[in-house]
Design a protein that fits this description.
The chain is an alpha+beta fold and about 250 residues long. The protein folds into three domains: about 1-60, Roll (SH3 type barrels), CATH 2.30.30; about 65-90; about 110-250, no CATH class. Helix content is about 30%, strand content about 30%. The chain is built from seven helices and ten strands. A five-stranded antiparallel sheet has the order 4-5-6-7-8. A three-stranded antiparallel sheet has the order 3-10-9. A hairpin with a 2-residue loop joins strand 6 and strand 7.
């Protein structure tokens, strides 16, 4: 039989050495295996001073205070990060102000129908301003379907640059506007219009390009509302994105 009392019990989880009197680990709180003490007997009687010192170490608040400070600091950092993210999300991107268009906008859907039915090669150009005027008119008629509980649809805006189309959706929550944006490369492939995501943002907080393929739900309701126009674009021959305009040619 062993004759020396083990001074410490090693935690099976975090490997910290604990006093023999402990039942749970001082650090992680895991239950200690006290069966190792069964074969030991007391070898040397502990003095009162040694006992007092050991017990003081066991119940010392230094480690507890350090852990509490760590968790409080981590909580403050997380809250500060969440607040900063919320502020960045609420800052609107660089978009034109809402404009009330006078009269009737160009009926782009009718122009696309004419283009797809043409037997002769044709090409049409639509300006960025004209497309946005058409979107404002078309979306206004479908706003009830685009509204969700507590979230109101406000408008959809497009911006054309060379080879790129930026789509921005403005929604409001309790009167505060939230903008979601996405940059896409648009082309016709195998008789179908495809939009390949490049980048995006919520407010001014960027969305990682690797996440963009999974962020389609941010624009899905607006895309569904333009289903007729989407089907017409599937019938064209090519789409070219230029600065402030889009050019569409008929299928050969």
């Amino acid at each position: 039989m062993k004759t020396a009392t083990p001074v410490q019990l090693t935690c099976p989880e975090c490997r910290r050495d604990n006093e023999a009197e402990r039942i749970y680990c001082h650090d992680c709180g895991a239950r200690l295996d006290r069966s190792a003490l069964a074969g030991y007997t007391t070898g040397k009687k502990e003095t009162s001073e040694e006992l007092h010192k050991r017990m003081r170490g066991m119940f010392s608040q230094r480690g507890v205070k350090a852990r509490l400070l760590f968790f409080k600091t981590a909580k403050v950092i997380l809250l500060a990060g969440a607040a900063a993210a919320a502020v960045v999300i609420l800052i609107p991107p660089d978009v034109p102000p809402t404009v009330k268009f006078e009269g009737f906008p160009a009926q782009i859907n009718l122009s696309l129908e004419k283009l797809t039915e043409s037997r002769q090669p044709q090409s049409m150009q639509f300006s960025e301003e004209g497309v946005n005027a058409y979107l404002a008119s078309a979306m206004k008629r479908k706003k009830e379907k685009l509204n969700h509980p507590l979230i109101d649809f406000e408008r959809a805006i497009v911006a054309f640059t060379e080879g790129n189309c930026r789509v921005t959706i403005e929604r409001s929550i309790f009167g505060y506007s939230i903008f979601t944006s996405g940059d896409y490369a648009v082309q016709i492939a195998s008789g179908k219009v495809t939009a390949s995501p490049r980048s995006g943002a919520i407010g001014r907080m960027p969305i990682d390009p690797g996440v963009m393929p999974y962020a389609g739900f941010l624009f899905s309701d607006a895309v569904a509302a333009m289903d007729r126009e989407h089907k017409l674009l599937n019938k064209v021959g090519s789409i070219q994105l230029r600065e402030k305009e889009i050019a569409v040619t008929s299928a050969q």
